[in-house]
Design a protein that fits this description.
The protein is α+β, with helices and mostly antiparallel strands. 57% of the residues lie in helices and 17% in strands. It has 14 helices and twelve strands. The strands form three sheets. The chain has a five-stranded antiparallel β-sheet with strand order 2-1-5-4-3, with helices on both faces. A five-stranded mixed β-sheet has the order 7-9-10-12-11, covered by helices on one side. A hairpin with a 3-residue loop joins strand 9 and strand 10. The longest helix has 48 residues.
């Protein structure tokens, strides 16, 4: 650009001088040679000054354009907001000002786009669902951290990689292909092979319009939902069975009485006792189910306060002592030797009483005649604990991890014979957790079982 302007200006000067010389030569040849001899030195000086002037003029005219070119190059290299010097002619100044305004606008626009991009990335990264964006060639455009966790890949290394190279889960790719060929968004749920029953739900939606081919894949872990659904189904089935059994006994007893057993005093008394026993069992079952529902829904309304532990244990042992004597069981209360009697648990009094009653009642039911039940307690700096130990039938290793499940009985026939609803230990677990405590079980089959409850200590809760 510079040299083109320079030679243009120089050519104009040379052409002007040459034209004057040519006109003079044509008018009077002698005059022309005379002028050449007289002004030869001056002509050299004039041409030299013309060269310098052409050089300076070209440089002055091109400098703003060079700065504009350099500024445009820096913008292209990512130096957004770059400014060029406002100088030169009016046209140059206006061009420079326009360039600077454009640079500011570009910088502002890119900052806004970057902010939106980072905000979108943070939102997608914080989602509990996995999100993967792919193009029409199945290349990964974006993947959040959750997608990497669910499908076991590094999302930072997945961008621009083929989806089939990112994860080898064949059933996942099948669902994605179904979604890419479907006219509407496609959702499908499957069990991950070799994962022990982990469920994933995959939702595939193609990008709207025809300008951006590809799709968004959303992955959701539905394992907890399916487990909750199975638990609900099991609960309904177990509850129906538990309610059906006493109702069947009551119905058969009433039918026997109607058919004539009421005329025999001895048979009538036996059937009525059976009806009363099964009715009590139904009442206990319904009461426990309502208690468990309130606890799980959080509507029980616990009111924690300081409850003196040794007094609560003494009251519990006294309440159950007559039943223990009936089975010739020995009940022993063992407070710690070095702990003051005023040590208190931070608990709801009624909930703590229900926990103790259920554990002691359970020990009495499953301890054979002549056995022993020991209730002891200990205190630490922040917690208090009590144990209910029996010399009963014990629990096998296969059953010990399930004793807190609803309606689960180690010995179903004996449990029903003892009047167990199958909900007592589940209620204990939920009540203890609601009071910010823990309950654990340790058992040896045929030798006995120990339940240990730990609660916050009053004053440290």
């Amino acid at each position: 650009m510079f040299w083109r302007l320079f030679f243009t200006f120089l050519l104009l000067v040379v052409a002007t001088v040459g034209l004057l010389g040519l006109l003079t030569y044509q008018r009077a040849e002698e005059v022309f040679y005379s002028l050449v001899r007289e002004v030869a030195t001056a002509l050299v000086v004039i041409v030299t000054l013309a060269v310098v002037a052409a050089f300076a003029l070209a440089r002055w005219f091109v400098r703003p354009l060079v700065e504009l070119q350099e500024g445009a190059r820096k913008l292209a290299d990512g130096d957004l907001g770059h400014k060029i010097r406002v100088a030169g002619s009016t046209e140059h100044s206006e061009l420079a000002e326009t360039f600077n305004a454009m640079s500011d606008r570009l910088a502002s626009t890119f900052r806004l786009l970057e902010h939106d991009h980072e905000q979108l990335r943070e939102i997608l990264s914080g989602m509990v669902e996995g999100v993967i964006a792919i193009d029409d060639r199945r290349r990964v455009l974006f993947a959040n951290e959750r997608a990497g966790q669910l499908l076991e890949f590094d999302p930072r290394k997945a961008v621009n990689e083929q989806l089939c190279d990112v994860t080898r889960l064949a059933v996942f790719h099948t669902v994605v292909e179904h979604g890419l060929t479907a006219a509407e968004p496609h959702r499908e749920e499957f069990v991950v092979p070799g994962s022990g029953g982990r469920h994933l739900a995959v939702y595939v939606s193609r990008f709207p319009g025809h300008g951006t081919p590809g799709a968004v894949v959303v992955i959701d872990d539905t394992t907890d939902v399916r487990q909750a659904e199975r638990m609900r189904q099991d609960f309904v089935a177990n509850a129906s069975h538990e309610l059906k059994t006493p109702l069947a006994v009551i119905k058969s007893s009433v039918e026997a009485l109607i058919d004539g057993a009421a005329e025999d005093p001895d048979m009538c008394s036996a059937f009525l006792e059976q009806v009363a026993r099964e009715a009590d069992r139904l009442a206990d079952l319904i009461k426990d189910m309502l208690s468990l529902a309130k606890i799980e829904s959080g509507s029980l309304g616990l009111e924690p306060r300081a409850v003196v532990l040794d007094r609560a244990i003494t009251d519990c042992v006294e309440r159950h002592h007559p039943r223990a004597e009936t089975k010739t069981l020995t009940m022993v209360e063992k407070p710690p030797l070095d702990a003051p009697a005023s040590v208190a648990a931070w608990a709801d009094p009624d909930a703590l009483r229900q926990v103790m009653d259920n554990l002691v009642d359970n020990a009495i039911k499953y301890t054979p005649n002549g056995g022993r039940i020991t209730v002891r307690w200990t205190a630490a700096a922040d917690t208090v604990s009590f144990e209910v130990e029996d010399t009963g039938v014990g629990i096998s290793d296969a059953d010990v991890n399930r004793v807190f499940e609803r309606f689960y009985r180690v010995d179903k026939a004996r449990g029903r014979a003892e009047g167990s609803t199958g909900l007592g230990l589940s209620i204990v677990k939920h009540l203890v957790q609601a009071m910010r405590g823990q309950v654990r079980v340790n058992s040896k089959f045929g030798k006995g079982t120990t339940f240990r409850v730990t609660l916050p200590r009053a004053g440290s809760a």
